[in-house]
C-alpha cells in the first residue's frame, strides 16, 4: 500500500426531506482512503451506505461537505466534468447493476474501456478475461435479460474493472450471489488487493471482511468504528472460506 490518498471526504452530509420528515442519510462523514487499500464499509440496511458511495463517486450531490477523487474536488464539478473524471478514474458497481439491456455481457463489460479510447481488441480481450474470472466465460454473448440476478451482478463487477480504474466503488456486490459465486468474487477482490487496486465495498455481507485491509462500521449515517486489519490475517480468514 502506498501513502497517497486517492479518495477523501470531509464533513460529508446528505439529508432527505425536511422538518419532521428529515432523514440524515449520511451525517458528517470524514474519510481518507489510501491508494491500494481494500476498505469494507459495513452496516445495516438504511444506514446510508449507498448514499455515501454515490456521493464518493460524484453520482449524487452532498447537502454539505467535500469529496476529492484522485486529488480533484468532484462534488462541485459540472456533470460533464464529473462524468469525465469517473470515466478516467472510477469503476462503479451499482446495487441495482444498471447493465445496458441491448448489449451482451461482453459488450457491457468492454464499453467503459472503449469509451476511454482503448483498442477494441484489447478491450475485448480484457472483458473476456474478467468474465472468465467471475465464472461467466460461457455467458459472454448473452443479453442481461437471459442472465440470472447473480450473473448480472457478476457482469456489473467485471464491467467496473474493465478500464483498470484507479478506484473501484462497489455497492453490495455479493448481495445476489450464492456461496460459489461469492467465492469467485472474493477471489477476484483478493487478487485486486494483491495487485494494489484501491477498492471500497459497502455491504452487509461479513464475508467481504475476509479480503479487506480495513473495516468501517456505519450506523445511522455515521462511522461507528474504524479498524485496520492485518493483511496476513485477512488471507487466513479467506482461506477458511474455500
Ligand atoms: N430519495 C430518497 N428520499 C428520501 N429518503 C431516502 C432517499 N434515498 C434514501 N433515503 C433514506 O436514506 C437512508 C439511507 O439510504 P441508503 O440507500 O443509503 O441505505 P443503505 O445503507 O444503502 O441501505 P441498503 O443496505 O438497504 O441498501 C434510508 O433511511 C433511506 O430511507
Ligand atoms: Mg444500499
TrEMBL record:
SUPFAM superfamilies from the xrefs? P-loop containing nucleoside triphosphate hydrolases
tRNA-binding listed as a keyword? no
The alphabetized UniProt keywords are: ATP-binding, Nucleotide-binding, Transport
Species of origin: Phytohabitans rumicis
Q: Give the protein family.
A: Belongs to the ABC transporter superfamily.
Keyword Transport among UniProt keywords? yes
Residue ranges of domain ABC transporter in the record: 7-242
Can you tell which superkingdom this protein's organism belongs to?
Answer: Bacteria
Secretion signal, residue range per the UniProt entry = none
Q: Which GO terms describe its molecular function?
A: ATP binding; ATP hydrolysis activity; transmembrane transporter activity
Matching InterPro entries: AAA+_ATPase (IPR003593), ABC_transporter-like_ATP-bd (IPR003439), ABC_transporter-like_CS (IPR017871), ABC_transpr_LolD-like (IPR015854), MacB-like_ATP-bd (IPR017911), P-loop_NTPase (IPR027417)
Entry's Gene Ontology cellular component terms: membrane protein complex; plasma membrane
Alphabetical list of PROSITE patterns matching this protein? ABC_TRANSPORTER_1, ABC_TRANSPORTER_2
Q: What is this protein called?
A: ABC transporter domain-containing protein
Amino acid at each position: 500500500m502506498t501513502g497517497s490518498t486517492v479518495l477523501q471526504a470531509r464533513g460529508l452530509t446528505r439529508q432527505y426531506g425536511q422538518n419532521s420528515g428529515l432523514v440524515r442519510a449520511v451525517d458528517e462523514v470524514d474519510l481518507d482512503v489510501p491508494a491500494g487499500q481494500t476498505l469494507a464499509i459495513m452496516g445495516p440496511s438504511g444506514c446510508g451506505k449507498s448514499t455515501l458511495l454515490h456521493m464518493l463517486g460524484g453520482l449524487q450531490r452532498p447537502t454539505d461537505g467535500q469529496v476529492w477523487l484522485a486529488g480533484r474536488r468532484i462534488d462541485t464539478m459540472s456533470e460533464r466534468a464529473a462524468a469525465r473524471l469517473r470515466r478516467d478514474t472510477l469503476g462503479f458497481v451499482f446495487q441495482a447493476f444498471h447493465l445496458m439491456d441491448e448489449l451482451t455481457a461482453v459488450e457491457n463489460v468492454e464499453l467503459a474501456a472503449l469509451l476511454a479510447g482503448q483498442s477494441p481488441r484489447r478491450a475485448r480481450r480484457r472483458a473476456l478475461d474478467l468474465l472468465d474470472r467471475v465464472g461467466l466465460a460461457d455467458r459472454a454473448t448473452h443479453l442481461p435479460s437471459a442472465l440470472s440476478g447473480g450473473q448480472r451482478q457478476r457482469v456489473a463487477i467485471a464491467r467496473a474493472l474493465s478500464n483498470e480504474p484507479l478506484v473501484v466503488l462497489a455497492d453490495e456486490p455479493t448481495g445476489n450471489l450464492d456461496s460459489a459465486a461469492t467465492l469467485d468474487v472474493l477471489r477476484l477482490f483478493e487478487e485486486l488487493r494483491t495487485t494494489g487496486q484501491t477498492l471500497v465495498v459497502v455491504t452487509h455481507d461479513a464475508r467481504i471482511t475476509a479480503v479487506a485491509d480495513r473495516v468501517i462500521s456505519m450506523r445511522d449515517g455515521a462511522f461507528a468504528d474504524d479498524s485496520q486489519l492485518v493483511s496476513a490475517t485477512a488471507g487466513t480468514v479467506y482461506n477458511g472460506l474455500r
